[in-house]
Every structure is written in C-alpha cells, then in structure tokens.
Amino acid sequence: MKTTFYLCLLLVGLHAAAHDQLPPNHDGHDPNESKHRAHHAGEVMTCLKLVPNNADFAFQFFKELRLETPDKNIFFSPVSISTAFAMLAFGARSATQTQILEGLAFNLTDMHEKEIHEGFHHLIHMLSHPESEVQLDMGNVIFLTEKLKPLKKFSDDAKALYQMDTFTADFNNPAEAEKQINDYIERKTHEKITSLVKDIDPQTVMLLASFIFFKGKWEKPFTSELTEEREFFVDEKTTVKVPMMHQTDIFDFYFDEKVPCTVVRLHYNGSATVFLVLPEKGKMKHLEQALVKETVREWSENLFQRRISLYFPKFSISGSYEIKNTLNKMGIIDVFTDRADLSGITGAPELKVSKVVHKAVLDVDERGTEAAAATAAEIMTISLPPTIEFNHPFLMLIFDRATNSTLFIGKIVNPTEH
C-alpha cells in the first residue's frame, strides 16, 4: 500500500491591476552588460516555450472548475498549480511522470522534459523580481516526516530549479504539523493565506506546497471619494449592493461581437496587466466556452484606446479548492493511486498524493501610486464618454507581460461573497 502525502497549492491575490514599463536604457560600456542581456534573452526564450502549454492548461482547468462550481465565484492561479505539478513530475517516473506533464498540456514529442524544467526555472526567476513595482513572490516547500529522507540529487536539483525549501514535520502530531505548515505559509504570503491545511491524516509522510503572492498598484489609481454604493446584478433574481469605484480616463478597450463581451485592459505599475471581461447579460456561458488562448490573443491584438467612464466594484474574494478530481479529469490519475511512481523523490516507490489543496485570495480596491504634488488640466471633448459598468458577473485575467504568464483567473459572480 502506498504511503500518502499532501500537495498544497496556495496563491494569494492582489490589490489592483496592471501595465508594463520598459527597463531604463543604459548607455555605459560595462563589459558584463552584453553577457547579462544575452542571459536574460535566453531566459525569456526558454520561458516563452512554456507559454502556449501553460495557457492551454490554465483555460482547460478553468473550464473544469466552473463545471464543478457553477454560478459561484472562482479564483485561482494557473501558474502556481502548473509549477507545483511540474516540480512533482521532476520526482516522478514512468507513466506517472508522463501523465503529469501531459496533464499540464505539454506534448512530450515537441518538448523534452529537460526543457520543461528549465523553462519553469527561468519562469520562477523572472517572476520573482523584487526590484519590480509589482510585488510577486513565488515559492515551493516540502515538509517531510523525520523517517523519510529525500534523495540528495532530488533535493539539490529541486532547490536549484524550483527554489524549493525542505523542512521536517511530525505528522504523528497533526495539530503541531498543521501549525508549523500554516505558520510558514502565512508568513510567506504576508498573512493573506491562513489555515491552509487542516485535518492532516497522521499517516501523511510528506506535504508539498506551492505559493504565490501578488500585490500591485494601479497605474491609474481610482479616487476613493468617487467610490459609491451601487447595484450589482448577480442573476435575474438576486441584486446586491457593492462599493463601486469610478474613473473617467483613456483605457484599452475592445468589444468582441462574436462572444459577445466588452474587454477593458487596465495596468499595474510594473509588468502585470489585467483583462476585465464583461459579457452581455445572459452570455457568461458563451464567454466561458470561448475562453481559449486564441481568443485572448485576438482581444489583445484588437484593443484600441478610448475615453471611458468606468465603474468597477471594490471587493475581496477567496477561492479554496480540493482539485484532485479536477486534475483526474485532465488525465493526471496515477499519482493519486497505488500505481504512483514518485521514486525520484525518495528512491522508493511507496508514495502517492492523497490530497491537493489550492487556496487563493483576491483584494481589489482604489489604491495605487502615492499622490504627487502636481496639477494637470485635462481637455475633454464635448460629447460624453461611453459608460462601462461591471455590474453583473464578469471575468478577470491577470497576466505578467514579461513572461506572458497567466498569473490568476477569476470569475466574479457575486463580489459580496468572500
């Protein structure tokens, strides 16, 4: 009988939405600069190889999740889930490894396993840039029972590729193990993710957790004085009151007649951007079915700038999921059964994943860059700008533009439900 372990995925949300800024141009003659640029270009190219596959996984996972939780808020981080399972695949062997990588939407004929792990390594490195105006922290951690020793090669390589930390935990004392793990995660996610794990089975021998924390400041912050309570139409029978933020400015805009839906792109200071997608009333299912990478690419290519009177709700939501069944439907099966082969982790085959927990938190408010002592006069046309009000269910897609990675996907059905 296989020994089981937990796999926990944590993601933590944000405070706004995004835009990219080009790095400053240096004119010096530092001999190391060209090497640095070449290395950076290599990282970007390796990351870009993952983009189509990661996007396919992200949107397929969303579609499976929305079938399981219809008419409910959804919020998760595809990049966190795929990173965690890519790391798990690094310690998997035979059919277990193949299922995981193919379940992550990789074609192993087109891309070698080594390329996948190198791609995730560079992705993690590029996303974790402390100098950026967007705060984005990613990490991976394994908690092991004292009797279970990972292979040195796995520990060394997983740390190098996935920035993985390893700790000992006493799973025979579940309360103590839960506190140790939850305290670690809470600290790493800036107290956003609390009580991630509970009811740990004393038979657990290993717990793997992946986390992501994101906090961005709007490039064009909303003025809190303009926020007012307005109606949000959850469905035909349910209306709730929400604090609705407001600003009139020039935004990236597109109306997709085929779906149909309105797309507004907002930016963060830094390299993150968000697509706010508002379907016509009653057309959410059409939008969900149309959500594939080609659709998002079409939106991106057809955006144009337009002055808009924008109303957008201020809200906080969280998503907490056990995603084992979701992953089963996507072809990742053996790793959860006695057929699991995770011998690359410990050298022995007696391991399987018992549970996969994923939790994400999203905060959206007016906050942006600090006010500066400056005055500007805007020249406005006589005609009033069109009003776009996100007052019924909509989607949020948050991307990192430097890597084209899908950081978060959200479906906001009721912004008052936490």
UniProtKB/TrEMBL annotation:
**Which Pfam families does the entry link to?**
Serpin
Matching InterPro entries: Serpin_CS (IPR023795), Serpin_dom (IPR023796), Serpin_fam (IPR000215), Serpin_sf (IPR036186), Serpin_sf_1 (IPR042178), Serpin_sf_2 (IPR042185)
- In this chain the Serpin domain maps to 59-415
| One Gene Ontology cellular component annotation held by this UniProt entry | extracellular space
Signal peptide boundaries: 1-19
Question: PROSITE patterns attached here?
Answer: SERPIN
Q: Which GO MF terms does the UniProt record name?
A: serine-type endopeptidase inhibitor activity
Which Gene3D superfamilies has this protein been placed in? Alpha-1-antitrypsin, domain 1, Antithrombin, subunit I, domain 2, Serpins superfamily
- SUPFAM superfamilies in the record: Serpins
Keywords associated with the record: Glycoprotein, Protease inhibitor, Serine protease inhibitor, Signal
The family note in this entry says: Belongs to the serpin family.
* Protein's UniProt name: Serpin domain-containing protein
| Biological source species | Apteryx owenii
